[in-house]
Amino acid sequence: MRDYTQQLTVEQFGALIPTGSRMVGSQRGPYLGYTPTGAPLPVRFDPTQAPREDRASAVLLIGTLGSGKTVAAQTIEYAAERRGSLVVDFDPKPDHGLHLLPELDGRVQVLELSGDPAQQGKLDPLAIGLEDLREELACSYLLELLPGNTSAWENAVSLAVKDTVSEGSRSLSRVVELLLASERGTAREAGEALEVIRDFGLARLGFGNGQSTDLQAERPITTIRMPGLSLPEPSAARDTYTRAERVSVATLSLVAAYALQLISRDRSRHKIVGLDEIWFLLASPQGRQIINRLVRLGRAFNATLLLGTHRIGDLGDLSDLIGVVFVFGQDSEDAAKAALRFIGLEPTRELVGRVREFRAGRCLMRDLHGRVGEVQIDLVYPHLLQALQTTPEQTGRSEA
Ligand SMILES: Nc1ncnc2c1ncn2[C@@H]1O[C@H](COP(=O)(O)OP(=O)(O)OP(=O)(O)O)[C@@H](O)[C@H]1O
Ligand SMILES: [Mg+2]
Questions:
Q1: Using CA atoms, how far apart are residues 309 and 304, in angstroms rounded to an integer?
Q2: Are residues 176 and 226 in the same domain?
Q3: Does 19 contact ligand 1 (Cβ within 6 A)?
Q4: How far is CA 18 from the centre of its chain?
Q5: Of 209, 230, 248, which residue constitutes the final position of a domain?
Q6: Which of 3, 77, 92, 271 could, after both became Cys, cross-link 303 (CB 3.0–4.6 A)?
């Protein structure tokens, strides 16, 4: 009798059926949740695995409003801190609660960034950006700030940034000076437009006077908040943004760079950078580029980026840099289909329907091995959920 031409292991056979195998997550590491279908199996997630094994180290958490992204990201951060990682957590809404946990008493520093004149220049990209990111960051920030179609100003702005850097200056105020003093009309126009914007609210954070900042994380967890942030509706097109929204969106990439600078010191220690609500950055080519660079640099710095977003938008070449993905509840058929395709599943009607019903931390996880499984994020202790959940009436937080 002839033998079979190919034999499959149980795992290989299971992997032929989407979500047929329930094995998902890391082999070791902190407990993150369980598989809700059938008898529950524990799911572990070790954020240090990707940078240790030199694999794509960005983690994407994608889902609609209130689907559980923020709670999951904080759960990962909390567990990582307990194992010795440094955490920088950007809390744009703000609705994060790590500072409320008694276990983390004295270990969380909350940094509030605002348009207050005392904080002028605190995020100046030429001062805070890592050396190989600085110029690019400054250009994209300035172009994001400018209204309308900015392509006419692109050359003028990048020339002025180059000149500023080669002078040895580390200040965006100097870039504006150079633009205003230029002999070319377009440069002066860009300079004038920027002069108007730079005193406007959060934009103050970006225009420093050239003092370099010596940044270092003081506590294991740094939470960055920006009370003045005014983010547009996720569905709004860029040319409909108000000035405040434009400034807010532009400032987000500076925050990302700031976070990276905070953790760039000690390569031997694993870090997590949590960037919640990053769809704005993904929506523009410049923003995508910044994220792209951050993820690549993150790997070199032994850091894992947690990226929380509502829509996949155009991830472009970023998709190659994303290892683990959590697909939380999706609000439309198209969003569900895009998310399923992203993790390599055929968007059948049944799967699309299931993903649309996910809420409260139910998700599909694609792990580093490409396995996909349904997972319920489980905080185990009620007080953890109480502190980290984000619905104001449930937390009863007075500062809201
Ligand atoms: N793992 C979980 N277990 C139980 N409840 C959860 C879990 N995750 C989220 N929830 C509930 O869902 C609410 C919304 O979750 P979360 O804030 O994480 O959503 P989100 O995806 O970040 O939403 P948004 O896009 O609005 O920021 C939480 O306040 C909590 O009540
Ligand atoms: Mg959230």
A1: 16
A2: no
A3: no
A4: 28
A5: 209
A6: 271
Distance CA 131, CA 134 (A): 5
Q: Is the pLDDT of residue 395 over 60?
A: no
Q: Burial of 239 by CB count in 10 Å (0-12 exposed, 13-18 middle, 19+ buried)?
A: exposed
Check whether residue 60 and residue 180 sit in a common domain: no
Chain segment 324-381, per-residue pLDDT in tens = 999 999 999 988 998 998 888 888 999 999 999 999 999 999 998 888 989 999 999 9
The strand pairing partners of 91, in sequence order, are 225
C-beta of 210 in contact with ligand 1 (< 6 A): no
- Which residue, of 167, 187, 209, is where some domain finishes? 209
pLDDT for 161-211, tens place per residue? 999 989 888 899 999 999 999 888 888 888 998 999 988 889 998 998 876
Does 1 reside within a domain? no
Q: Please check whether residues 138 and 46 belong to one and the same domain.
A: no
Residue 163 CB contacts under 8 Å (≥ 6 apart), including other chains: 178
Ligand 1 site, residue 330, Cβ cutoff 6 A: no
Query: Based on the structure, what is the number of domains in the chain?
Result: 2
Whether 290 has a pLDDT exceeding 90, the answer reads no
97 lines ligand 1 (CB under 6 A): no
Same-domain pairing of 201 and 289: no
Q: What is the β-pairing status of strands 372-377 and 362-366?
A: antiparallel
The confidence band for 19, taking pLDDT boundaries of 50, 70 and 90, is low
> What is the distance in A from the centroid of ligand 1 to the CA of 37?
20
Q: For the domain that residue 285 is a member of, what is the CATH number?
A: 3.40.50.300
Residues 328 and 238 in one domain: yes
How many Å lie between the centroid of ligand 1 and the Cα of residue 104? 21
Domain residues for the domain of 159 are 125-209
pTM: 0.85
Sole residue written with tokens 């792209």:
292
